[in-house]
Write the structure tokens for this entry.
Amino acid sequence: MRHTSGPGTAAALGARILILLTTAATTLAAALQAPAWVTAGLGAIALTFVGLRRIFDWHENRLSFSSARAKLGRTIHAYRLLPEERRSEAAKSALVVQVDDIVMAETTAWTEHRRTMRDGEQTP
């Protein structure tokens, strides 16, 4: 499996590092008997980072995007590998249908994921 880098992976890594640092700093501040407002402030910052990470769900979004991109790439490459004489209107229509199916499946999965997250947040 190839490791990719980019803004999404950098943001996810940055979020994990910030969560780790702020939670560790919260524990350290409490152990050093820092003023209550310092410990509470660090805890609030850590909680904010955790909440933002949950809301935006960077890792899951990146995985979903990568999967859809690979499916689309495979479909388009299969069409491009057809000899020119076989790229008929029927082949072009089939390509469009396959791309639409991939887009619809990804959109449906994303919608279901968002509903699940929303419903999970409303459950006590």
Residues 57-124 form one domain. The chain has two domains: 1-56, 57-124. The helical segments are 7-31, 36-56, 58-80, 89-122.
